[in-house]
Amino acid sequence: MADPKENVLMEKLVSLCKRRGFIFQSSEIYGGINGFWDYGPLGAELKRNVKELWWNRMTRMRDDVVGLEATIIMHPQIWRASGHVDTFSDPMCDCLLTRKRFRADQVDVQSGIAYHFTGARDSVSGKVSQDPFAVLLPAGKPPESARKTAVAFYQLRGLQNVELSGETTEKVENSQRFNPENGALLTEPRPFNLMFKTYVGPVADEENVAFLRPETAQAIFAQFKNVHETSRQKLPFGIAQVGKAFRNEVTPRNYTFRSREFEQMELEFFIKPDEAVEALCGQVATPSTPGHPGTPQPDWGWQMWHQYWVEERIRFYESIGLPRTTLEEYWQKPDELAHYARATVDLLFKFPFGTQELEGIAARSDFDLSQHQRFSGKSMTVFDEELKAAWPKLDPTRQSDLSERYRLARLKYLSKTGEPAEKAEKQAAEDAANLGKGYYVPHVIEPSAGVDRLILALLAHAFHEEESTDEKGRKETRTLLSFHPSVAPVKVGVFPLLKNKPELVAKAREVRESLRSHFNVFYDEAGSIGRRYARQDEAGTPFGVTIDFDTLGERPEWKDTVTIRQRDSGAQERVAIAELRTWLETRLR
């Protein structure tokens, strides 16, 4: 549980986001809708900046990654192939008294005395209920409280004058079987599928069922062959996508951290299986030291590529203002890994409500493409001309060893999917034979980040309060968002010193017009200059430009110069208007 200081911080952050137009609750005028959030003027700019920086870093600054934008609704068979229809669920339980729903693994642990009742009867009508019920009370609380709750339970089942029966007690330690709000017994956990269901076409029947996508990755796998063939890319290469995803979370919580509608930034980076790398290069490079492994090399196996992308993602976060010291690497243990994953690293950030996942980087083997190949009947193999040419030059013993390793890997996948043993053996043998002909199913490294979680992390890290004392001894608190300039929603604030001086206003508007085609500029002439600075501090604007009487030539040596104020330090300096754009460009990267 978060300590009080962290709760206060979160409350202040949420208040600031509402007050300054970063984030609003969706449908607020109708009481809101849980798990959905709207981004206001500043939030929309912040989010757009983050997505553009990710996209540029992932695609435009690289030769080996291309982009995709896919539909939110896809063929429902895609979600059967990916396992989402059958396994994408959370354990759910309901309160027997209120019917409120909880995620079973997130119910607070409790201890106390449990009062069990085998049923009840109506003393007037004689009607009987044999539904068992239980209530957990903290040690020392009078049993009458449990009986009162039990009476309410049986009244909901049609009894009016309730007589309880079969009362027994039990000491309970560290249980998650009771509602922490009222002590009532919870139902047994059962799976609750997280996908939003809809219908495609005029008839809402089972034949027309579709789903809002719970992730953006599967579209990349489904379009892999089209992108590979049209982009003229050779392995290794990646496909990136930014887009909306939807999950019907049982308990959305922690502001925008866990929502029902959110955005993802995902890369699927396709690599050669290690057996193909070894056939081509004679060896497979593996990590020997921690840290960034450097420029990609032809002999990299999946472990090198995985470490490379972990470090690349950390470098991205550093470049937008989240230092490495704010992040933690959590390497999932073998028993935590998905059955198809070879390794997964979660990048964690310390939010005000606790340290939570910001991004996951998974080595997913060839599971995804293999699944879509199996369900669609369409080949997801690639032809590697270099591998075909290199294979005959290998020693027969090496050929046999590589073929057998590849056969066993394919057999492991096929067996886990439930294929009959004989069919799986036959298919794995064919796949191994095709490796020597230059054909294989690519493996994938997947860095997957949540846009909304990243926005929340940037807001939490940037939020600062500074106390100062004015000349009269009064304490003042200054609130600011110290965003990295690259993500700041507004880059420059432009202010005339006084709004009732037309010449100052005209010059300020002229300066604003000269900058607005290069930066997001906010013009403000209302209130004192100090108050305007404070508003921009809360918006996270890095620089404020003030046009004063010296700009107009009151002091000739400062004519056509402006005062620039820096957000974090409050320091000010004079800069010529003619040099203003260049001055800003060098500091807003």
Description of the molecule:
With 589 residues, the chain is an alpha+beta fold. It has four domains: 4-88 and 199-380 and 441-454, Bira Bifunctional Protein, Domain 2 (BirA Bifunctional Protein, domain 2, 2-Layer Sandwich), CATH 3.30.930; 94-190, no CATH class; 383-440, no CATH class; 490-585, Rossmann fold, CATH 3.40.50.800. Helices cover 33% and strands 26% of the residues. The protein has 17 helices and 29 strands. A seven-stranded mixed beta sheet has the order 3-15-16-22-19-18-17, with helices on both faces. α2 crosses α14. It starts with a helix and ends with a helix.
Characterize this entry briefly.
The protein contains 17 helices and 29 strands. With about 600 residues, the protein is α+β, with helices and mostly antiparallel strands.
Spell out the blueprint of helices and strands.
Elements: H1 4-19, E1 23-25, E2 37-39, H2 41-60, E3 65-67, H3 76-81, H4 84-87, E4 89-94, E5 101-103, E6 110-117, E7 119-122, E8 128-129, E9 133-137, H5 143-155, E10 162-165, E11 168-175, E12 190-193, E13 197-199, E14 209-211, H6 217-222, H7 224-231, E15 237-246, E16 261-271, H8 274-281, H9 302-319, E17 327-331, E18 343-351, E19 354-363, H10 367-376, E20 382-383, H11 385-390, H12 396-416, H13 421-435, E21 439-440, E22 443-450, H14 451-462, E23 463-469, E24 475-481, E25 492-496, H15 502-515, E26 521-523, H16 529-539, E27 543-547, E28 561-566, E29 572-576, H17 577-585
Parallel strand pairs: 3-15, 25-26, 25-27
Antiparallel strand pairs: 1-2, 4-5, 4-12, 6-9, 6-11, 7-8, 7-10, 13-14, 15-16, 16-22, 17-18, 18-19, 19-22, 20-21, 23-24, 27-28, 28-29
